[in-house]
Amino acid sequence: MTLGQRLRIALAWGLGLGVLLVLCLAVAVDRFGQEERARPARVIVVLGSGVLPNGSPSADLKGRVDHAVDLWRRHLAPALLFTGAKLEGPVSQAESARRYARSLGVPRSACFVDQASRNTAENARDAVRIIRENGWRSAIVTSDPFHLLRARQLFREDGLEVATSPALDVKRNRSWPARAYWTLREVAALLDRPRLLVLGPVPNQRRE
Length: 208
What we know:
Layout: H1 3-34, E1 43-46, H2 59-73, E2 79-83, H3 93-103, E3 111-114, H4 120-133, E4 139-143, H5 148-157, E5 163-166, H6 171-174, H7 176-192
Parallel strand pairs: 1-2, 1-4, 2-3, 4-5
């Protein structure tokens, strides 16, 4: 066997293993996101998403808020923390979500906002800061299902163990092509920060 043949075989094996890794991680992301893990906590964190030109939440953000408000109505947590900066539209993602939650009957006193974070990593960092400033020790994070594994790992990276609760009724979860596309995007995001893949639970975290 020539050196060129050996290189081609090695390349084929490498590509095959790479594809297998991506598929296994995609299955893990999808399965994790479809499972409900909510437990009683002090606050529900709603990760940001798009805002329409009139300031109302996009369908995906609305779906996240609808789910968070349902958890709140079920008394799983007394407060909601909305995250997301002003990236498009006249108001921030957090403010658009807060206004929508208020229209659903959530009192002003139960609503908190982080209007500085521009991506999931910043959502987690700023949410953890606000949670600690308020003396809270437990949180539920809600978002689209595909988003939740990376979100939990980012919260762990910032020192907070969280429960996750998927907004299953969002459009991107109901459509199989969209579900596959967004899951593969999450795989790419995880592979871009491989440290997230090995982060275990936050040790010695006190529960409220």
